[in-house]
Amino acid sequence: MNLDLFILGGYGQFVWPAFIFTFLSCFYLFAKTKKEFHKCEQIFIKEFKKPEYITVRANEKGKIPKEILSTSSI
Asked: Mind listing the pLDDT tens digit for each residue in 44-66?
């Protein structure tokens, strides 16, 4: 296996710790934000308790009135 890729021309000792620190920081912020979001979501659900769906009724005759579709004001 060629280790030159990981050594990065002698700068690997500086690059890899910075990469690992950045990755761990982003993961921590993601996890913290996700936890906060779920907490706020539960508060919202408790407060409003609205259904997640709506019902749509079709026209009984199955026809759409022409007045609705007309674009002219004649």
From this structure: 888 887 656 667 676 666 666 56
